Structures are given as structure tokens and as C-alpha cells.
Amino acid sequence: MPSLLFCGPKMAACGIVISIWGVIMLAMLGIFFSTKSAVLIEDVPFTEDDIFKDQNPPQNIYSLYNQVGINCFIAAAVYVAVGAVSLCQVRLNKRQEYMVT
């Protein structure tokens, strides 16, 4: 039967640590973008047309803030999936240690 084990115990543990860090950081960024934090205005991809040539400029900027926040939450979900795979690899590595061949 083929094994689903494709990385070692150290790499799997590193994947878990990086995933936890990524989830926390991206979830916080998503929250701050969703609340339209003024500090993050440099990271919002708007053009000059969004500000000067629109009838209601704050709403366009707010929608861009929300879109970036959603992107951060999606990236956090990807990190959750990577953490789950890494956790499975850790468990498979531990089970491999106890198997007698």
C-alpha cells in the first residue's frame, strides 16, 4: 500500500509553526483591512481615477479595503489547510516510528 508520508518530522513541524504564524498574521490583517485602518492605505491598490474621477470616492476605496481583507482571509484559510497537512504528516511520522518492518 502506498504511503501518504512525503515529508520528514522536522519539515512537518516547521510547516505547522509557519502555518500558525501565517494564520494569525493574515487573520489580523484581514480584520484591520475590513475595519478600514488608515495605516494600511499604502497597501490598498487604488488608482488616481478611483479618487478624483468618481462621484463617490470613499465608497470605492472602502470596497478596495474590503476586497483586500477578503484576500487576506482566503490566504489565512490556505495556511489552515497547509497546517492540517503538516499535522497529518507529523502524525504519520510518529506512527512510522512505532511500526516494525
- Supply the number of helical segments: 3
Q: For the record, give the distance between the C-alpha atoms at the N and C termini, rounded to a whole number.
A: 14 Å
Q: Calculate Rg over CA atoms.
A: 21 Å
Helix proportion: over 70%
Mean pLDDT: 89
Please trace the helix and strand order, writing H or E for each element: HHH
Structural class: mainly alpha
Shape: rod-shaped
What's the β-strand tally? 0
Strand content: under 5%
Sheet of most strands:
none
- Point out poorly predicted stretches: none
Topology of this structure?
Blueprint: H1 9-34, H2 48-52, H3 57-98
Helix pairs in contact: 1-3
How would you explain this protein's 3D organization?
This protein has 101 residues and is mostly helical. The chain has one domain (9-98). The protein contains 3 helices and no strands. It has helices spanning 9-34, 48-52, 57-98. It is rod-shaped, with a radius of gyration of 21 Å. The relative contact order is 0.21. It is a multi-pass membrane protein.
Compact summary:
By secondary structure, the chain is mainly α.
Q: What would the keywords be for this entry?
A:
mainly alpha; 101 residues; 3 helices; 0% strand
